[in-house]
Amino acid sequence: MPELPEVEVIARGLSQTLAGRTVISVKVPGLTRLSDAAEVIVPGVQGQTICRVYRRAKVLLIELENESTLVFHLKMTGRVVHGERRDINKHDRIVFVLDDGSWLIFSDMRKFGYVKLFTKQLLENWDFLQKIGPEPLESSPAELVERIAGRKTSIKGLLLNQSVVAGVGNIYADESLFRAGIHPETKGHRIGHERALKLFAELQDVLKLAIRENGSSISDYVNAHGDAGAFQNSFNVYGKKGQQCSRCNGLLQAVKVAGRTSTFCPHCQPRR
DNA sequence: CCAAGCACCTGACGGC
DNA sequence: TGCCGTCAGGTGCTTG
């Protein structure tokens, strides 16, 4: 499930190989429900040269020569992979055929993700992006602490809330809470300043480490070249309910917080 | 302002 | 063998 680090790794990988490539044709085996129609995307990208590939929150953006932008949200199982021409498979949603013969493929088994095409103006006014909070790797921990000050929601819910901080999903929320020693159900306003600073410093740390490790591959994630990430091997808590805590050897527990499974160590992350 | 619950999807997995 | 229920989780929406 791609969160900030996974989308960042994809964007960096694509940036190396896509800049300057031109879209020759488009194949549309079947789009997802929330995607723009093929009638919008195909004529808008044909003949266009790719200028820039970047990420904002969990969204992947590919800017074209005419200042329009292809936007991908991968949600749970989406992939964007660039490589040699290959057979179309059942989960492929759209294929961009490039001028060197290579293919850029968006596939998504569960069809939660989407691809949309925006003009410059429409992208600037897209309410989804306008609601997104600051990038955690481009903000200081002190700035991020202000975003949770006085909030009565659980810290887990705040971390997952994209308008509070961008790009954090279930994996990196649980991992940073473990590192900071904070119980996921702790209310935002009950976290002391020092501990909150620690939380966001740990969040930054874990995001950077994950990017360095090529992201986390749980089930579907692969980078722009189809390779799995390795950070899942460094998880302390995510998906480890019932296993031993790496710090105290106690058993990890799972609870639902903000509608999501949250795995934590009751000893290292005590309820206050 | 906040929580809870559902919807959207498919595949993996466990129980019987 | 296969059927059935549950779970995975990002986001939008509704309801309270």
Compact summary:
This protein is α+β, with helices and mostly antiparallel strands and 272 residues long. It has helices at residues 4-18, 38-45, 120-124, 127-130, 141-148, 155-160, 170-180, 193-212; strands at 23-27, 50-56, 59-64, 69-73, 78-83, 92-98, 103-108, 114-118, 253-257, 260-264.
Binned, the helix content reads 25-40%
Strand proportion: 15-25%
Count the strands? 10
> Are there runs of 5+ residues with pLDDT below 50, and where?
none
Through-space gap between termini:
31 Å
- What overall form do the CA principal axes indicate? elongated
Question: What is the CATH class name of the largest domain?
Answer: Mainly Alpha
CATH architecture of the largest domain: Orthogonal Bundle
- In CATH terms, what is the fold-level topology of the largest domain? Helicase, Ruva Protein, domain 3
Q: Which class best fits the helix and strand makeup?
A: alpha+beta
Please, how many domains? Answer: 2
**Count, helices:** 8
Biggest sheet features: 4 strands, antiparallel
Q: What is the residue-averaged pLDDT? A: 93
Order of strands, main sheet, comes to 1-6-7-5
Radius of gyration: 20 Å
One letter per element, helices H and strands E, the order comes to: HEHEEEEEEEHHHHHHEE
